[in-house]
Amino acid sequence: MFRGLIVLCLVAEAAAASPKYDRAANHEPELVAAEKLWTAAASERDRVRALAAWEAAAAAFLAVADGKVAKAVQQDAAIASILAWKNAMTFDVGEPAATDVERPPPPQPFDARDRVHLRAIEVYLAFAPPPAEVAAIKFLRANLLRRRDHIDEAIAGYLDVVEHHRDHEVAEYAANLLLDSYNRLQRYDELIALAEKLRADQAFLAGRPELATTVRRVHLQSMRGAHHGSADRDFAWYQRCGEDYLAIAAEPALSGDEAEELLYNAGTCFDQGRAHGRAITAFRQLVTRLPHSKLAVRALARLGAAEAQLGDFRAAADALEQYVTQAPKAKDARNAAADAITYAMGVGDVARARRLVKVASARYGWRRPVASAVVAPADPLPERLPALAPFAPMVTVNTTFEVSKP
Predict the structure, then answer these.
(1) CA-to-CA distance for 204 and 211, rounded, in angstroms?
(2) Looking at 310, 326, 348, which one is the last position of a domain?
(3) Residues 304 and 319 in one domain
(4) H-type helices in 201-326, by residue range?
(5) 209, 225, 217, 310: which is closest to 258 by C-alpha?
């Protein structure tokens, strides 16, 4: 009789009506008494008295389930006991015991209400109910265990739901709580392993965007840990790191903050791996997709440096000029301006160089006299030297147009 309501009642507020029976056994005195207790509990509005009333109804129905009545009545009484306990929880004004976040919480003892609930679940599952009901009841049992910090046992329950009832709606909640439980126990290797397993199971994540976001965040955190914690890193390692970040950045449904961090980290890893072309790809994606984000502005400075590494000094000057324009007060803006002028000189863009000299001189107060200036051999535009005078003591351009600052 309750099967159509089980999942709803397990996740909803207190039931508004008492359970109804249409079997001949409904005249059993114990069952009639339990029914009256349910009715009384459902009509009680005082929170404290309602809690006691639902507890009494749960215990009464469990007594029927444990008694010598027909199997079908036992089954219905067991689920009624479970639902009565669930209703009691909505009126429980107590708070779970606080646990120390610095270490795994010790298991707490079960109270009388917990024992009634666990016994009702045991009795009900013994009747081999339909799979949809099994998933919901097992999930409820795991939640009770977790609430009392029996987290190892709760993990086994959540795993059971995820592995054997993956299409049920509670499977998503079980997966989320499973990840959280590993975290609470500080079993980080298992947390990461589960996240990677779920991340690879796109069929399971389909239609579950919140879980997919959680899994992605765990994956990113594990990548950060590997990035900062590995002592054995070479150029190839950094290049693989960059490719990983770039691949995740291409996933749909990313938030702006996530995409921003991913693309910036990808470019940084490529830079450290001396893969400057790939770094340019990552930084340009960031600047194009999220031009007004903070990391996009910082990416302009790195983009200019990467372009210079590959010898595209015009593109380097473009990026650095944008950086100085958007972040004039940044600590490295002064040097970025000098680099931009240097690269403009190197490609013969006198107009840009003079414009930058004028802006940077006013902004940074560069008024130092000319000491010397070295330009590339075969430079066709010697007339630019007067305009570059304020920077001569600070910037030297050699034959490969590399910048050095004394």
Answers:
(1) 10
(2) 310
(3) no
(4) 202-205, 209-229, 235-249, 256-272, 276-289, 294-309, 313-326
(5) 217
Between the CA of residue 392 and those of 120, 274, 314, 334, 389, what are the distances in Å?
Answer: 86, 30, 20, 14, 5
Write down which residue in 284, 310, 336 finishes a domain.
310
Q: Report yes or no: 134 and 125 within 8 Å, Cβ to Cβ.
A: yes
> Are residues 299 and 385 both part of a single domain?
no
- Residue 372 is assigned to a structural domain of this protein: yes
Q: Is the pLDDT of residue 276 over 80?
A: yes
Neighbours of 390 (CB within 10 A): 21
Range of the domain at 394: 315-406
How remote is the C-alpha of 294 from its chain's centroid? Answer: 20
CB 396 within 8 A of CB 404: yes
Kindly report, residue by residue over 179-219, the tens digit of the pLDDT: 999 999 989 999 999 999 998 898 999 989 899 889 988 88
Q: Let me know how long the chain is.
A: 406
Q: What letter would DSSP give residue 150? A: -
> Could you tell me if residue 288 is inside a domain?
yes
Helix H or strand E encompassing 57: helix 47-65
Write out the DSSP string of 83-134. HHHHHHHHT----PPP--TTSPPPPPPP-HHHHHHHHHHHHHHTT---HHHH
Candidates 3, 11, 64; CA nearest to 36 is 64
